[in-house]
Amino acid sequence: MINVGDSRAVLGTRKNKNDNGTVSAVDLTIDQVASSTDERKRILERGGYISEPKEPGMAHRVWLDPQCTRIGLGISRSLGDHALKHSGVIPDPVVTDRTLTPNDEFIIIASDGVWCLMESIEAVNIVQDGFNKGMGASEACLELIEASKKRWNDSEGNTYRDDITAIVIRLDDLWNDANDAV
To answer: Is 129 strand, coil or helix?
Structure first.
């Protein structure tokens, strides 16, 4: 996986393909945020400033100035945020890899509007519940988006909601097709 910023890819997997128990969540990407030790070090070495979160659940922010008044960004890597490039915000992606197995059920790729108020395992459980109800990937994805919207509304009322973008990719048919080809 290739990732820049705080969108995240999460794998829903089982210990055993025949296991009807719970699906586990495995983060396939690493959020690039200013609270990460390596990201923080780079930003400070390149002249950026980092503010602490104003309240629990909020992100550290990268700033152009020590007063934290000129352009702030809640991520440490970004495409297109040229104003903060001299403050240590870089466009370089973090690349991770994982070999998929028949135990892997699905992948969720979503923006921070999902992850700000939801842990990876919660998202995996929502999607798996949708599949258990006979939904396809698109319908299960809509369930995840609706659950995210509800959390934002419960947390912020109708005053604010971050962007919520998600896609769910089912992997079970991938293995069926591979077995048929052999």
So the answer is: helix
